[in-house]
Amino acid sequence: MQRVATCSSDRTIKVFDVSGETQVLVANLTGHDGPVWQCTWAHPKFGVLLASCGFDNRVIVWREVENQPGAFSQIYASPATLHEASVNAVAWAPHEHGLALACASSDGSVSVLTHRPDGSWTVEKIPNAHSVGCTGVSWSPSAPPGSLVSGGLGVPVVKRLVTSGCDNLAKIWRFDEQSNQWREESGLRGHGGWVRDACWSVNMGLPMNTVATCGQDGLVFIWTQNEPGGQWVNSLLHDFKVPVWRVSWSVMGNVLAVSDANNLVTVWKESVDGKWDQISAME
User: Fold this and answer.
1) What is the pTM assigned to this prediction?
2) Which of 66, 76, 99, 150 sits at a 20 to 30 Å CA gap from 59?
3) pLDDT digit string, tens, across residues 56-80
4) How far apart are the first and last CA of the chain?
């Protein structure tokens, strides 16, 4: 049995048990006061946790009640001071970083919520991450770049994010442990309109970093950084000719799903010569 969570402009989140072609509704979560833009599951090591965000400026974390399948309670609801506009995207950190959630808002800021052993949540804020508004956020993989080649010895573990915004930019952020602050590391310039989403691919411990971005201009770029601290270089995956809303990598990081304004989801895979080929399309 698998679980699927969906969110909607009807202000609800629905949780389904899925087995084969059978779907059974097990929970209907209400708590947002506006359209719910995104919901995402946390790593199972933390229990059955679901985060959601919406047009009401709020972030909510839901936990399934132990021994009561389908019963969810709110364990965190963001205060009115967290964000001043719609929260457009949320992303859980790799479980190696603990229970942490990044949130991207139309107020231009990004917040990172971290759960503490005493049950409280701390907040780190990136103010003015994007001058007009922030549309998406994604964490870098937990395996440090190059750790497979080096055997993991002497390779520092770092927390990094990629964000997308209405300023036509995607940005790479790195957490500075000494100052306890997030600092901008790189700006990815290539889109001619709002960058709607950015997603960091798994690197499997190899030296290369890979990020996909998509935009209002219809373009999807693949950005690569061939060595830690090196320059980010982009290549055009495809011009869809219509706005592209979301990009999502497969678990292995070698297949990319793209959703666009034609109500299509296309799936792309890199060939041995470095070109990206469409391997399927779904309406």
Assistant:
1) 0.92
2) 66
3) 999 999 999 988 888 999 999 999 9
4) 25
- CA pair distance 238, 120, nearest whole angstrom: 44
Contact in structure between 99 and 42 (CB atoms under 8 Å): yes
CA–CA gap between residue 97 and residue 159 (Å, rounded): 8
Which residues, at least 6 apart from 87, have a Cβ–Cβ distance to it below 8 Å? Answer: 37, 53, 54, 57, 58, 59, 78, 103, 104, 105, 106
CA 52/CA 49 separation, integer angstroms = 10
In the block, residue with structure tokens 């107020």: 107
Between CA 270 and CA 273, with CA 271 as vertex, the angle to 5 degrees is: 120
* Number of other residues whose CB lies within 10 A of the CB of residue 45: 7
Rounded Cα gap, residues 115 and 175, in angstroms: 17
